[in-house]
Structures are given as structure tokens and as C-alpha cells.
Amino acid sequence: MPDPFGSPVAARDRGLVWHPYAPLDGPEPYAVESATGVRLTLTAPDGGRHEVVDAMASWWCAVHGYRNPVLDAAAHEQLDRFSHVMFGGLTHEPAVRLAERLTAMAPGPMAHVFFADSGSVSVEVALKLSLQYQAARGRPKRQRFLTVRGGYHGDTFAAMSVCDPVDGMHSAFPGALARQVFAPRPPAARLVVTATGDERWETDRLALQEWTTEVRALAATHSDELAAVVVEPVLQGAGGMHVYHPESLRVLREVADDHGLLLVLDEIATGFGRTGRPFASEWADVTPDVMCVGKALTGGYLSLAAVVMTRDVGEAITRSAFRALLHGPTFMANPLACAVADASVELVESTWKDHVPRVGRLLSEHLEPAAALPHVADVRTLGAVGVVQLTSPVDVPRITRAALERGVWVRPFRDLVYTMPPYVCTDDDVRLIAEGIVGAVAEAHG
User: Fold this and answer.
1) Binding residues for substrate, per the UniProt record (predicted)?
2) Which long-range contacts (CB under 8 A, 24 or more apart) does 191-194 make?
3) Does 65 appear as a known binding residue?
4) How far is the CA of 19 from the CAs of 14, 78, 302, 318, in angstroms?
5) Would you say 398 is a known binding-site residue?
6) Residue 59 annotated as binding?
7) One of 21, 25, 46, 198 is an active-site residue; which one?
8) Which end of the chain is more exposed for a tag (fewer CB within 10 A), N or C?
9) Is residue 141 annotated as a catalytic residue, yes or no?
10) Annotated binding residue at 314?
11) Active site includes 155?
12) How far apart are CA 112 and CA 101, in angstroms?
């Protein structure tokens, strides 16, 4: 049967262009003709159009929707000046203004910013920085990292080494990856919001205590070879949308302090309000030494990430033999990206409290019926994140098609059908997303 959502563009794409984690001869991709607000317009072979709500916010970054007038204006204004200039020996207003905003917004006393091309590259920079930091402190043998199972930090090689070594996507490269120290995944937790708006975290306290004991022992065993602790705070994203108790993050902060390690928090997916706090580390009242941000940083307009760090870290690097952080991308601090990012972060600061709790409440309410479906193992939400976990791997083509027929674009993986929608979704948009997911799961796996 011909795909009603196919297009000539998609047919030309197939076998020519690589797509993420997909074979060249895989299913024909859907073609996007336009995107406005929270909706994508997909083109059919006969020229017909099908409008769907983007439940993925373009892999979690388009939090303000498409063609946002504030971000459009920032881009046009910067284009009228200059779109790019090298950052070696030069600076410009968009980079400085964005760095000032990030250090002011970040949790705790952050003082310095390094701009990178993407989230994966920002993790690479953070890992390099950690090694340089330890060498500057007279501990050059500290070359490994402590992390937890189930994590995902990007697709470049150093970042791959701190992703889950067994269940992650990077088990195909075992001989090329540095061997890190992996603690168990923290026990699952759930944030319960009462009718009066009170919040409490629930988890298996015994499992949390046992996990804490094991992590402390592991860190003590490897203390002399560790440079930093590297984790996604509270919510592990591409590793399985796993939510864990903020107490686990506080334990990792204590472990880092006890052994002279840096605490590197990957807030690329969790930052800028996504979990219901400006940064997910704030659920635990924990301040990182180094923090990576990306995705929502530019609202999905351009690729940009940043590594934000404390004054202590910056001073250690400055006192080191090289005196510089040894990384320098061609497009570092691209002015166009920085200008849009500054507008995006300012917009996040002024609007996320109005949007994220509302989106979260609606996702929780309208995804709950999925829990009664026979092949659903769990339904969970945190901030503007909603997850339906199945008892078996997702039938991705069937779920995708069934959701599209209900007016929703989703991109399932593993055993998860989930949504991280744009913050600006209306109540009706969120209901459509949640009911579309529940209906698609019932049709494909019911």
C-alpha cells in the first residue's frame, strides 16, 4: 500500500541521505513542507498536505515553537549585522551577552562559559576540561570518569565512553572507547503532585540506600584514577527516559567532594525548564562544577551548546601549563546562533513557569488511560515530559503511522512512546498529543 504521507522529496532522499540511527534503505522518511507554531505540514505524493502537532519539539529543542516572532526578529537583526566571525582573537556582543545571561541563570556561582557546536561536543569539552583541571591540581593520573548505567551523553567518542556500555547505542565501538567506571543506574523515582500543588518524591528507600552504599564504595576503590562524576540530573533522556530521586544526585555531589572530583552535569535535555525547574539539578539543590547546556538553548533555530563552569575551575585551567582550555571549534560562539540563543533563554526565563506546569498536568491526566492497556508497563511524567513504556519494543512504523493519523508526530525508541512537546502548546494541543499517543499505542500494541 502506498504511504499516504510520502512525497517526491522523501523518495529522492531514500538511499541518498543518511538519517540518525537508520539504514540507507530504511523506511521512506516523511517530508516536511513547513512548520509554524507547534505544527508541521507534511506533504503527500499527490501534493496534499497533512498538518500534525510536533510532540517531539524537534528532539526537545523547539520549546518556543516554529517561526517564533521573537526568535525570528533576533535572527534577522543579527543577519543585518554579520552572521559569523571567528572567535579566535575576536569577540562580539551576542556571545558576551549570552554568556552573561547563562552565568546569571545557572544554579550556583557559575563564572565562565565555553561555547561549543553541539551537545555532544560540549560533553567532549567538559571531559577535556576535567582532565586539564586534575592535571593543573597536580593529579595528572586521574584520567577516568565515574558515571551511572543508563546514561546518554552524545555520539562523539569521549561522550560515547560515558554512555551506557551495554544497553546504549555505542556498544559497536568497544575497542575504541575509553573504559570508564560505571555505577548502577539510580533507583527509579516518581514526582507526585497533590491536588493542592504540593510536590513529593517517591522511591524505594531501601534500594536507594543500597545504591548509595555501592556508589560510595566504587568511588573509593577508583578514587586515585577518577577526574569527575558525569551524569544527567534526575532524568536520563535517550538512555530510557528514566527518572530518579534527587537524593541520588546529592549523593553524587558528596562523592565528588569527598574524592576531589568535579561534578559535571549534562543538562542538555533537562535544562531551561523542561523538568519543572530551570535546571534539573535544582530539584536536588545541587550546584555542579561544570554544566553542559544545549537543545532548547537556541529554541531549535541553530546548533549551539555551552559549557558553564565555576570560578574555581576557570582559575585552575588559567594556572595550568597550557593556560587555555584545549578546544577551539571553527564556528565557536557563532554570532547568529548566540543572538538567537540569547533571545531564546530570555523567553524561557519569562515564560516557562506559565507553560511547563500546565503542560505537565495535562500530560499526566491524559496519558493516564494508557496504564490500563495490556502491553503498557508504566506511564510517567516529569515537567513537560510524558512517557508511555511498553512491555516490549515499540513497533515504530505502526506507532508513527497511527499517531500521524491522529494528528501527532512522535518518534518512539526502544520500548518507549514519549513526548517532550513545545512549551507553547495550548491545552488542546497537549490533549491531542496525549490522546494521540494513547490511541496509537492501543491500535499498534493493544
Assistant:
1) 59, 152, 295, 328, 411
2) 191/243, 191/276, 191/382, 193/360, 193/361, 193/364
3) no
4) 9, 31, 18, 41
5) no
6) yes
7) 21
8) N
9) no
10) no
11) no
12) 11
Residue of 54, 164, 266, 342 marked active site: 266
Give the whole-angstrom CA distance, residue 145 versus residue 413. Answer: 27
Q: Strand order in 408-409's β-sheet?
A: 32-36, 39-43, 49-54, 408-409
6 is in an annotated binding site: no
The contacts of residue 328 (CB under 8 Å, 6+ apart) are 87, 88
- Catalytic, 266? Answer yes
End-to-end CA distance of the chain: 23
Q: Please tell me whether 133 is known to bind a ligand.
A: no
Q: Is 151 annotated as a binding residue?
A: no
- Grouped pLDDT means (10 residues each) for the chain, 446 residues: 65 90 88 95 70 97 98 98 98 98 95 97 98 96 98 95 84 88 98 87 98 98 98 96 98 98 98 98 98 98 98 95 93 98 98 97 97 97 98 95 95 97 98 98 91
pLDDT value, residue 46: 56
Q: CB neighbours of 426 closer than 8 A, spacing ≥ 6?
A: none
Catalytic residue among 30, 66, 152, 418: 152
How far from 60 is each of 54, 238, 420, 421, CA to CA, in Å? 10, 11, 6, 7
C-beta of residue 43 within 8 angstroms of C-beta of residue 7? yes
Q: Is 411 annotated as a binding residue?
A: yes
∠ CA(232), CA(236), CA(237), 5° rounding?
A: 110
152 annotated ligand binder: yes
Three-state SS sequence of the chain? CCCCCCCHHHHHHCCCCCCCCCCCCCCCCCCEEEEEECEEEEECCCCCEEEEEECCHHHHCCCCCECCHHHHHHHHHHHCCCCCCCCCCCCCHHHHHHHHHHHHHCCCCEEEEEEECCHHHHHHHHHHHHHHHHHHCCCCCCCEEEEECCCCCCCCHHHHHCCCCCCCCCCCCHHHCCCCEEECCCCEEEEEECCCCCEEEEECHHHHHHHHHHHHHHHHHCHHHEEEEEECCCEECCCCCEEECHHHHHHHHHHHHHHCCEEEEECCCCCCCCCCCCCHHHHCCCCCCEEEECHHHHCCCCCCEEEEEEHHHHHHHHCCCCCCCCCCCCCCCCHHHHHHHHHHHHHHHHHHHHHHHHHHHHHHHHHHHHHHCCCEEEEEECCCCEEEEECCCCCHHHHHHHHHHCCEECCCECCEEEECCCCCCCHHHHHHHHHHHHHHHHHHHC
Whether the model pTM is above 0.70: yes
Rounded to 10 deg, the angle between the 93-105 and 335-367 helix axes is 40
Q: Catalytic site residue 66?
A: no
